[in-house]
Amino acid sequence: MEAQWNPTSYPQSPSVVFLLVATSYAWLLPVASPQRIPTDPQAAPEYAHSIRLDGDIILGGLFPVHSRGDRGTPCGELKKEKGIHRLEAMMFAIDLINKDPELLPNITLGARILDTCSRDTYALEQSLTFVQALIERDGSDVRCANGDPPIFTKPDKIVGVIGAAASSVSIMVANILRLFKIPQVSYASTAPELSDNTRYDFFSRVVPPDSYQAQAMMDIVTAMEWNYVSTLASEGNYGESGVEAFIQISRETGGVCIAQSLKIPREPRPGEFDKIIRRLLETSNARAIIMFANEDDIRRILDAAKRNNQTGHFLWVGSDSWGSKISPVIGQERVAEGAITILPKRASVDAFDRYFRSRSLSNNRRNVWFAEFWEENFNCKLGMHGKRPGSLKKCTGLEKVGRDSSYEQEGKVQFVMDAVYAMAHALHRMHRELCYGYPGLCPRMASNIDGKELLSHIRAVSFNGSAGTPVVFNENGDAPGRYDIFQYQITNRSTAEYRVIGSWTNKLHLKVEAMRWRTGDPSLPASVCSIPCRAGERKKVVKGVPCCWHCERCEGYHYQASEFTCELCPYEMRPDANRTGCVPIPIIKLEWHSPWAIVPVFISMLGIIATSFVIVTFVRYNDTPIVRASGREMSYVLLTGIFLCYAITFLMIATPDVGVCSFRRIFLGLGMCFSYAALLTKTNRIHRIFEQGKKSVTAPRFISPASQLVITFSLISVQLLGVFVWFAVDPPHTVVDYGEQRTQDPTSARGVLKCDISDLSLICSLGYSILLMVTCTVYAIKTRGVPETFNEAKPIGFTMYTTCIIWLAFIPIFFGTSQSAERMYIQTTTLTISLSLSASVSLGMLYMPKVYIILFHPEQNVPKRKRSFKAIVTAATMSGKLTQKGGDRPNGEVKTELCESMETNSATELELG
């Protein structure tokens, strides 16, 4: 009798499987004696659970012919496309190879094709069939019922396996195949985990891994300028590995944040998909949903979004499990509108279409599941033994695929054929190496095909596949990444279809202009946590979420140095209008047309005209008694100082340069120094004359005009000496003061072009003149008792009192505005007007009365009799008592007399100026 083995009772843990296979698998394997094969025509054939094709070299095949079963049953409904189309593609490829005289000549390929039922554990049990021939059998302890030794059926020796489809199935099967060094080439498994050559070293695939797909999806997200997305994965290796690869790439490249990463359970409970939609809406800004999910889950997610009135909200980005399939979007086109999907680049194999359309019940008996496919495809029943229950119409057997039923080539047919051809090309290379010139299999290959050596040939193949695309493998057994990018669009005719909008081959090529979103909305949708900051704003990132931020404007003199930082502009610069850079601060100076300049210039011009008029008048009447009595030499010195006080206004307003700055230093204090040195000399002279007259009739020393000029210019030379020392210590130059008008608003900031004269330097320059002014005022006070009819002491006194008041007002105005934004204008105007007012006071009080007499009362400008110095001093002393006498005499009489006396006798007589 046959030793029996129940596959469904086999342990599901891979480690247990390996242990059992290595120790006791020999006597558990199914056996069948040729004499004991059932002869009942109604009985199931020996290989009813698999397809077996005879050949010199046998390849294994794993296909999801049936879906996952429910309630503990391993298998469910038949899969027409993913199951039947794919396994037929393998058999079709084998047929083509066996007919090809160039590829594996005189060698026939066979196959052993198994059904995985879309379940990894069941597939593991089925794959044990592939390793039977590699296990040594010991039948010494096994006996038939009649005592005869058992007869074991010789199992097929599988040299390589084509499959599986699902990544979870390939992972499970790869674990056992690697133990027996059987190479495996998958046509649909894309999990990145399978790229680990240390764990799955005998695994290869003709489809690119999801790591490429994840990179392509990341490039799509980046091209769409989305930086805030959620991920959704079906539980299992495919979905979880794909999402993990996408998340890993997002971490490495940056710029894309994952709002939520949700998982769809294998066995979802009622309301699970509505719950997922609500969870996704918690981060409503993350509209883009990256999906690595099977088509059933995709359909149910779209349905849940439709039920929750979220049509048009989510931006779906689907993996190759969605691709260009119609089944997930039927009936929910609006909610799927705009979905971007990705699919490995492929083409339809026309030869397979002709082959498959020609299949029938009569010419396809090798496919043990073809009868079931026939019933499913044509919705009929094959006699009383048909597997479809119910009162369906009876199949005639004359139905035709593509004529009596819809037909569209399944997307992975090309890859199934490429996988078979990859194995065939590797065997061909191996045959040339081991059996060169030998027809058919030589003993070295017939006895044993080394799996490791075959693997090296598989990894080295390079040929054009069934669709004309190159088939190559990298060091990990992965195919290169080549994808087509689709978008599900609804046209104006209200018809929905997938349209190719780009491709990815190590680099994204996307035609954004070909993309269409919600009907009537041409704008590019957004999936961002925060809107981009405007120019001049920096991002203040939310902790832990680098794609979410608050925008903060760069304030003050700061500009946007980078996406996340604001930096201070250099001191001489300010932010530009967009605050993305710095521009030089405009440089200004006091312009001639400014109101701050017009007023002092007007006063100065009037003063210069008046001073020039006085000078001309004095020169014209130089020898008249009034001019002579005024002290001609000292008058001209004083008038020169007054003129300089007016003229300095033009230097203060002129555009600063080295020459202007040099003249400012020289003349800023020189005009005042001329004026007050002359007045100080005159008041000191008057004071000394009358003090000396109280003691002696002898005139004091140094009262002659020459002496007075020497004293005056000696005082002026001190000012000039200080200026020259200043030149030596700090040569004049211009500076741009950016602090003077550095306002809170950078747009109002200005740099002020000025001479490098500090407030301290200015005070030092004017300080000597102010000292002369104060000293002169002291002498004016001391000579206030001198009779007015005898001298100019009182006009000089009034002049100095007024001047002191002007400069006392100047100091708080000048220094009180040092922090004002209008400092340059206020201080320059204050200084120039103060100088002009000082000059005007001196000019008006000391010279205008004389000019008035000279021009309008020439009768008073006549010489008088001479008096001795003693008589003059006595008259001055007694003038307080002789008020009537002093009032009767005309103004200037005494002065004229004194002047004339001095000219005739300078030793004994005195001119009182």
From TrEMBL:
Membrane topology type: Multi-pass membrane protein
Glycoprotein listed as a keyword: yes
A GO molecular-function annotation: G protein-coupled receptor activity
Keyword Glycoprotein recorded: yes
Region (Disordered): 882-913
Subcellular location: Cell membrane
Gene3D superfamilies on file: 3.40.50.2300, GPCR, family 3, nine cysteines domain
Record's compositionally biased regions (Polar residues): 902-913
A Pfam family per the record: 7tm_3
Main location: membrane
Cellular component terms per the entry's GO annotation: plasma membrane
Domain G-protein coupled receptors family 3 profile: 596-870
InterPro entries: ANF_lig-bd_rcpt, GPCR_3, GPCR_3_9-Cys_dom, GPCR_3_9-Cys_sf, GPCR_3_C, GPCR_3_CS, GPCR_3_mGluR4, GPCR_3_mtglu_rcpt
Family in the record: Belongs to the G-protein coupled receptor 3 family.
Name listed for the protein in its UniProt record: Glutamate metabotropic receptor 8
Source organism of this protein record: Seriola dumerili
Classification of source organism: Eukaryota, Metazoa, Chordata, Craniata, Vertebrata
